[in-house]
Amino acid sequence: MKYTIPVFKALTERATLLGGPKEIVLLNAVLALIIWTMFNTLWIIPFNLIIHFFSIYVNKFDDRFFICLLKFLHKKKFYDV
Questions:
Q1: Is residue 61 part of a domain?
Q2: Which helix (H) or strand (E) holds 58?
């Protein structure tokens, strides 16, 4: 007899918000709100949509890309040859 246990995606993948990583989507929304309130212009919306769709695109291939990028940028001198 062979027993199998179903594993849900929530146990193996990171949670997303609107398809992108939570941290990036929230940061993008907060920056858009700050820029909108400072300059009172809606020209920021296309730029935020581009950033949002880019984060969704990257998240489809590697859900930990932004975490690795942040750690790389933090320790950039360590990895410099």
A1: yes
A2: helix 44-61
Residue 70 resides in a domain: yes
Count of domains forming the chain: 1
Dihedral sign, Cα of residue 67, residue 69, residue 71, residue 73:
negative
Listed residue (55, 61, 50) closest to 25, CA to CA: 55
* Residue 57 covered by a domain: yes
| Other C-beta atoms lying within 10 Å of the C-beta of residue 29 | 14
Chain centroid offset of residue 55 CA: 5
Say if 12 falls within a structural domain.
Answer: no
pLDDT one-digit tens code per residue, 8-66? 877 778 888 888 889 899 999 999 999 999 999 888 999 999 999 999 999 889 888 98
Q: Tell me how far apart the alpha carbons of residues 39 and 29 are, in angstroms, rounded to a whole number.
A: 15
pTM: 0.74
